[in-house]
Structures are given as C-alpha cells and as structure tokens.
Design brief:
- By secondary structure, this protein is α/β, with parallel strands linked by helices.
- The protein has a domain of 169 residues: P-loop containing nucleotide triphosphate hydrolases (Rossmann fold, 3-Layer(aba) Sandwich).
- Helices cover 29% and strands 25% of the residues.
- The chain contains eight helices and twelve strands.
- The strands form three sheets. The protein has a six-stranded mixed β-sheet, with helices on both faces. The chain has a four-stranded antiparallel β-sheet with strand order 2-1-4-5, covered by helices on one side. The chain has a two-stranded antiparallel sheet with strand order 11-12.
- Strand 9 and strand 10 form a beta hairpin.
- The chain is globular, with a radius of gyration of 18 Å.
- The two termini are 28 Å apart.
C-alpha cells in the first residue's frame, strides 16, 4: 500500500448557509491512530462527511495520497453514528457487509463469489459470522456496530473513519473495536475516530485532534489535553473526578439521518 497520507488545508463547510468548520487544516501520516474530540456541534461529523465527499467544501481542499478527494476509488471507509442510520431498512447482515465491496465493482456488475467470501471473512473477524442471514433491524446496538465495522473491513480501506463508535455499545464491542484499530495500525491503515470519551482518547490513541468549529489543538494526548485547551473547547462542561475526565453534554448529534 502507498503511504496513506491525509492532508486537510483550510477547509470551510456547513449546512444551509451556516458555517460549521472554519479554516480547518491538519495532516495525518500513514498508519496514524487519531481521536477526534470536541463538544456536540463542534463539527466532528461534519468533518467526516467532508472527508468522504458527502458534504462539499466551500473553501479549501482535501488531499489523499497527494491527490484531490475522489481521485482514489473507495480509499476511505466511513462508519456513521448508529443513530444516523435507518435500521428499519430491509436488509440482512450479509447484504450490508457486501455493500462494502460495491466500490470495487464495475458499472452494473453484481457482487461475485470473491466479494461474498471477503464479506463473510470480515464478519468472522468481528465475531458475528453466525448472524450473516439475520435482519439488521433485529440486532443489538453492539452487533449493529460490528456489522458496519465488517462492512468497512470488506472495503479494504487505506483510511478508516468511525463516528462515535463507542456510544450505546457494550464493553465487549468497544474492546473489539479498539483491537481492530490496533490491527489496522500494524497494517499501515490510518484511523480517525470521533469520541466523547476523553479518557479513551487519552489512553488508546497516539494523536488527538481537539476541535470546536476550528482546531483548538492537535498532537499527542499530553499536548492536547491541557486545562487551557479543554476550557476553550468545552467551557465548563469538563469535570475531573479522581483523574478521570468527564464531559457533560445534552445536545443532540449535529447530523441528519442517513440511509444504509
């Protein structure tokens, strides 16, 4: 795999005339494990949508492998927030994971044996191969999260974006997700994960991007999680209880529902 290097330069983006991201610039080396943190409405989901081309930029640019966004087919895999997905969509677990192969197919080409084999292997990696023929709507939150992670794996991405993957899932799924990220790191895959869990960001990721519509800080957890930076990003929402950082947030996610 070529060196997966993501470069974001002075991007501005938003919805319905409102600006959410203001002159955001950063770069991510190949194989980096990056946590994206900030309060609700800070632009985390908006940033991810820009990086996968779901939301156009008003200014600035995004480069992947030194090329403009969209030049590389299916290079970036994106797992949206669970509550941004229509879980009533009538598809099976295997159907969802096979969707991760669509970017590899030619126009009007149907998935073949190899695509289904890769999808089943991805489900096996996530420990839910036995659920292949189940309806996605019948699964628990943790199982649904694993399905979408399997779909991302089936895509064979160079860059993986996970938007709040730890929200509403069990501890086992959280650990499975982190183990997967560790494996992908060893393979040179770049991962960006948005999370409200500041302690997980501080202990399980090598780099942290702290944003609130603009970049507050970017670097190692020690460099980013200073009292000053946290106050700028969260105001009085961050509490420290026996060395554990807690964020008090009550606002709904910033993104509308998307379909599977």
């Amino acid at each position: 795999m070529d060196s997966a290097h993501l470069v974001v330069e002075n991007i501005e983006a938003g919805y319905n005339g409102e600006s959410v991201l203001n002159k955001i610039s950063f770069s991510v080396p190949a194989g980096e494990s990056l946590a994206v943190v900030g309060p609700n409405g800070a632009g985390k989901s908006t940033l991810f949508k820009v990086l996968v081309g779901l939301l156009p930029v008003r200014a600035g640019s995004v480069l992947v492998h030194g090329k403009p966004l969209g030049f590389h087919i299916d290079c970036i895999a994106y797992v949206p927030q669970r509550d941004a997905i229509d879980w009533k969509f009538p598809v099976t677990v295997l159907d969802v994971v096979v969707m991760g192969r669509f970017g590899k197919l030619k126009w009007l080409q149907k998935p073949g044996k190899e695509d289904y084999a890769i999808a089943l292997h991805s489900l096996d990696q996530m420990g839910i191969k036995n659920l292949a023929n189940h309806s996605i709507a019948d699964l628990s939150g943790g199982q649904q999260q694993r399905v979408f992670l399997a779909r991302a794996l089936a895509q064979n991405p160079h860059i993986l974006l996970l938007d709040e993957p730890f929200t509403g899932v069990d501890a086992s799924t959280q650990e499975t997700t982190m183990n997967l990220l560790d494996e992908l790191h060893d393979q040179g895959v770049t991962s960006m994960v948005s999370t409200h869990d500041l302690n997980m960001a501080a202990t399980r990721f090598s780099q942290v991007l702290l944003i609130n519509r603009k970049i507050i800080a970017y670097g190692t957890p020690e460099e980013v999680f200073t009292p000053e930076n946290l106050h700028i990003a969260f105001g009085g929402q961050v509490l420290s209880m026996h060395g554990v950082m807690v964020v008090d947030e009550c606002c709904p996610p910033e993104t509308p529902e998307v379909r599977i």
